[in-house]
Amino acid sequence: MQSTYKQSFSKQTFIELLAILIVAVFLGGLLTGCTTMAPQKEAEEALRSDSRVLVKQGKFLAFEPLAGAGVSATEEAQGNAGSAFPSIGLIIYPGAKVDPRAYAPQAKALAAQGYLVAIVPVAFSFAIFSPNRADWVLHAYPEIQNWVVAGHSLGGVAAAQYAVRHKNQIRGIVFWASYPASDISQSGIPVLSISASLDGLATPEKVEGYKKNQPADTQYVVIQGGNHAQFGWYEPQKGDRAATISAEEQTAQIVEATAAFLQKLEKAYGGLQ
Known about the structure:
Rossmann fold
């Protein structure tokens, strides 16, 4: 029996690795050099703390909502600011060769709505080599019991890997210009897929082709005029298409869709702690 288990495990592992490699090639992450794409100035500016969000730069990037974040002006005036920590936090895996800081504008905007958001660094700038980096965040914030993992491009592949192996803590997956390498259709995990109509890497055709790997109730959002690189704030990416909307507009749509998904899950798991 032990021998049969080992053979089965080895075959399953091989299939998973092969699927990941195929997706990595599709997303362009292993074909276009090894230079990490640096964050633009807007991303660096988002790394500064303000009255709503405390930014911590340590083992990973953390964006902690301060008291009043995510609360309307009326609620704040009535003294109903509540706890700074919601029942759900978000962990973001960066795309291949993208500096984690490039996602700071999205992370900070989501934290300003009351969510703890973390961006994890990954080995060799490829998230598939560090699928368990979310562990760092879970250990650092034990007071948050429910988490959502998100990933841009190849980061989404790693996020999905982590989610299906930690169903007791991961309540949702968010794909930013990404899709799962293996079949997660029966995982029971809620999924949000945000893609862009002019993405030259995670093209609309590829996103459509990988729908079979996702749950039937997956929520799909397509950003018209958006592209692959504008899911972060970094230089134009080889193989991508030119966007017809601004990075600011694409970021706003990413944040809006992601926040709505988090709010839905937050209600399902008890609201504020």
